[in-house]
Design a protein that fits this description.
Layout: E1 4-7, H1 23-34, E2 38-42, H2 47-54, E3 61-64, E4 69-72, E5 77-80, H3 85-97, E6 103-107, E7 110-113, H4 118-126, E8 145-150, H5 157-164, E9 168-174, E10 177-182, H6 187-198, E11 205-209, H7 215-220, E12 223-226, H8 232-237, E13 240-241, H9 249-256
Helix pairs in contact: 1-9
InterPro entries: Cof (IPR000150), HAD-like_sf (IPR036412), HAD-SF_hydro_IIB (IPR006379), HAD_sf (IPR023214)
GO cellular component, one term: cytosol
Protein name: Cof-like hydrolase
């Protein structure tokens, strides 16, 4: 019996085409809550951008920053997993040597970026977000950094993660950049923290996603559902592939499994 469902935002709840949540998904979320099924967000977005995307809807809790920061609907912290300060120091030095590579640092409810290039603008336009304020990487010192976003290609991961961010790992859902979190954090780890808090068994969970950073939770949840617009490797990680976000994929899957 499904008691808790976790939803990614971009490409899952929110369409890349319309930048809105389909009416069918809005109705499905309301019906789930009426039935007593808990609904949660599970996103790579920081808190401030997550609330802008889904702030008009009611959820029981939130997994943000790919599992690095989890909290309740009442904004009570459930879990935080910060990046080690020694990794941040190495990244500050690395960014001085490679100023052409922008990095975003997320701390508390705020964020900043070290520079702006075409990749930064493309991603901001893709998900319709404002570009963070620009500060030098040194601005991260003394702050609890929960996530970094690096605008470099996957082929450059080797140097960054072997020599600089030694205690971190990338979560990619778009080729131009990587969400970077402390090793051990993931959306699946976030699910474990949330269901422990609410006293829910993992077998009674369901998760929806479309990006590479959703693969851990799709494999981990009791039922993992990939959207029809997801890449093949994401679909292969899921128990079921529904239609796309623009073709009522969430509602269709919930009906398929008899949840609604």
């Amino acid at each position: 019996m499904v008691k808790a469902i976790f939803f990614d935002i971009d490409g899952t709840l929110v369409s890349f085409k319309t930048h809105t949540i389909p009416e069918s998904a809005r109705k499905a979320l309301a019906l789930l809550r009426e039935k007593g099924i808990k609904v949660f967000i599970a996103t790579g977005r920081p808190k401030v951008l997550m609330m802008k995307a889904v702030g008009g809807l009611d959820f029981d809790g939130y997994i943000t920053l790919n599992g690095a920061y989890c909290f309740t609907a009442g904004h009570q912290d459930i879990y935080k997993g910060a990046i080690p300060e020694e990794d941040i120091e190495r990244l500050i030095r690395f960014n001085k040597q490679h100023p052409e590579l922008p990095f975003v640092f997320v701390h508390d409810d705020t964020w900043f970026i070290t520079g702006v290039n075409d990749a930064v603008r493309e991603v901001a336009d893709l998900i319709k977000i404002d570009i963070p304020p620009v500060h030098p990487a040194e601005y991260a010192r003394g702050k609890e950094i929960l996530q970094v976003m690096g605008y470099f290609q996957a082929g450059e991961d080797g140097e960054v993660f072997s020599d600089v961010l030694k205690h971190c790992e990338p979560m990619r859902w778009y080729p131009l950049f990587a969400d970077i979190i402390a090793r051990g954090n993931s959306k699946s780890h976030g699910i474990d923290k949330v269901i422990e808090y609410y006293g829910i068994d993992l077998k009674d969970t369901m998760a929806f996603g479309d990006g590479g950073n959703d693969i851990p939770m799709l494999r981990h949840a009791g039922i993992g559902v990939a959207m029809g617009n997801a890449a093949p490797e994401v679909q292969n990680a899921a128990d079921y592939v529904t239609s796309s976000v623009d073709e009522d994929g969430i509602l269709n899957a919930l009906k398929h499994f008899g949840v609604l």
